[in-house]
Automatic annotation (TrEMBL):
Organism whose genome encodes this protein: Streptomyces asoensis
Gene Ontology biological process terms in this record: methylation
One MF annotation (Gene Ontology) recorded for this entry: methyltransferase activity
Species classification: Bacteria, Bacillati, Actinomycetota, Actinomycetes, Kitasatosporales
Keyword terms of this UniProt record: Methyltransferase, Transferase
Xref: SUPFAM superfamilies: S-adenosyl-L-methionine-dependent methyltransferases
Pfam family, any one: Methyltransf_23
The protein, known as: Class I SAM-dependent methyltransferase
Domain of life: Bacteria
InterPro entries to which the protein is assigned, alphabetical: SAM-dependent_MTases_sf (IPR029063)
CDD domains assigned: AdoMet_MTases
């Protein structure tokens, strides 16, 4: 299989697939167009009964889910939204919410979180496996990571599919994957090492299971 030119993360972030303002960035906490529906998890129930619940949303778009959560959580809650572009319609944020404009490929939080979400964000990240590895270490002991993941977007250096070894390695590290909904979850923070070395990304991979153009991530075994 011919290998396309692979882009670094900064190059990828300037590509039209990632800088695509027709993406659905408006999901709220509950309802038809929501995190609860996409992830199949009652996120507030996961955060309930914690004195200072913390939620990190990676690739947060407009940040609507966190904004809605802020009014249902105690004042001590810590809500962090990270997005490459940030909200396109800036509004004042509730006190518990910190909105960070940065690439999740290089950003690192200074703390751990009870909940980490990435709703249809990994489709635009070059080193998806690297981000999943780093996010595992950002979870609290009983924290939950929930993300959409398309194993078909992981490729070997020659362009052949690496979905099976990627999923095997993730499962061996403790992640659960539901192919029906493309949901990846991890319960409990831990150090993770996956046997992959990131090579670069192909933004011309075409639409993924969502029907939207997405990137393919290339790796060699390490
Ligand atoms: C399909 S939208 C989903 C937004 C939000 N999670 C939602 O469901 O409403 C994907 C988001 O990923 C963001 N994104 C893409 N690449 C990123 C990167 N390297 N770092 C942070 N955010 C990124 C985009 O700016 C966009 O807001």
């Amino acid at each position: 299989m011919p290998k396309p030119p692979l882009l670094s993360s900064p190059e990828l972030e300037r590509s039209s697939v990632v800088a695509n303002n027709t993406m659905n960035r408006e999901r709220g906490l509950t309802g038809v167009n929501s995190y609860a529906r996409e992830l199949g998890v009652d996120l507030l129930a996961h955060l309930a009964h914690r004195p200072a619940p913390s939620w990190l949303d990676l690739c947060s778009g407009e940040g609507r889910a966190l904004r809605e959560a802020a009014s249902a959580l105690p004042a001590e809650a810590v809500l962090t939204a990270v997005d490459l572009v940030g909200p396109l319609a800036p509004r004042s944020a509730p006190p518990a919410l910190e909105e960070i404009v940065a690439s999740v490929s290089s950003w690192t939080p200074p703390r751990t979180y009870d909940l980490i979400t990435c709703v249809h964000g990994l489709h635009y990240i070059g080193d998806q496996l690297g981000l999943l590895t780093r996010a595992a270490s950002w979870l609290t002991e009983d924290g939950l990571l929930a993300a959409h993941f398309d194993p078909e977007s992981v490729r070997h250096a020659d362009g052949s599919p690496a979905a099976r070894p990627a999923l095997s390695a993730l499962r061996a590290a403790g992640y659960s994957y539901s192919p029906r909904h493309h949901r990846l979850t991890l319960r409990g923070g831990r150090p993770v090492q996956l046997p992959f070395h990131y090579l670069g990304a192909d933004p011309t991979a075409g639409p993924n299971y969502t029907g939207q153009p997405a990137i393919a991530s290339y790796y060699t075994a390490s």
